[in-house]
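Quick question: what would this complex look like in 3D?
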Amino acid sequence: MFVLVVGGGKVGYYLSRELIESGHEVVLMEKDRPRADQIADEIGSVVVPHDGCEGKYLAEAGANRADIVAAVTGDDEDNLVICQMARHHFDVKRTIARVNNPKNERLFKHLGVDEIISPTRMILGSIEQDIPVHELLHLAALGEGELELIEAHLQAGSPAVGRATKDLEIPAGCALFAYIREGVAAPLGPETVLREGDKVIAIGKTECETLLHEQLIGAAEALDGR
Amino acid sequence: MKTVIVGCGRVGATLADLFDRAGHEVILLDLATRAFDRLPATFSGSAIRGDGTDEDTLRRAGAADADVFLALTEGDNRNVMAAQVAAEALGAKRTIAKINDPLRAAAYAELGLATLCRTSLMADAVADYVGLPVSGLPGIRTPSGTHHDDQHHATEAPASVGQGAVRGQEV
């Protein structure tokens, strides 16, 4: 597989090194000359010391035959342009962008970037898991990002407490499949009666979230003053 | 006519003044307040310090119902992104992005952005002055397509972009 990596920061550097070690063809673009030379010294002559946002240099780096373009610079706008140029100008089938500002994720997706990696979101997700909040926790994005793995921590006052799962109104396109009670995980059957303190694990479409929230946590108004 | 301008450099400030004098509503954005020193004392529009590629900032600045949206910062890519946020996420009507790299300017015109390329404009002006052949391209390349044309995966409706929560954002 031929992977074109744009951005020779820490991410680009280690990404290229790992890819080379696993036997892939790699070209790394880094516009800062001293940095580019330094990387070339360490991992070999796979570095193109030019700006990967410029069509001319993308062409020189072989963008037109790249299987994957990974834009991992520190600037969101650069990563967006790299992916868009790769896709539309060089017909690259798969583009991956690093996104630093989580607010840009949806925009990038909409503008045709195939895969979005958000370190900020990942760290945020990890932190959220440690904070007891009366909210749905996002454990992971599945599929193309339209599905979410969600955890709901049932508190007193949750409409789901004391009810069997079959009596809950679970939105279409959404499945409750397991629960954690006192640290023990178990599959969630239709007859399982939920208790306060249970953690319910669900998979659902992003847009089901509001309904799921109402069923498992409570209506949004009830959360005032949280 | 409501005009939002991102980037208060020479071009941004000049155009802001021009629109303002013509009696139009002007909202100018720049990351540095010092940039607004370029504006004449008579300027009666708004000058806001903020990131013109940030959707919320643009929304607050009123880009959603702008009749004209101009992305005129120093960075080609910042302009591309600002214009795309305005057009795609917020629905600004006429968006123009300054893109000085001719190749990128042409590519983004094909992707649905009106683009303004200083490099081509100046080259043409000089060529014309000394009697060399000019490119014949218009000063502003009008969009000739959208970036949704050849998508092989489903895209959401523009209206849904950025509205409500991005995954996990409502914390």
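Answer marked as accepted. Chain B is about 35% helix and 15% strand.
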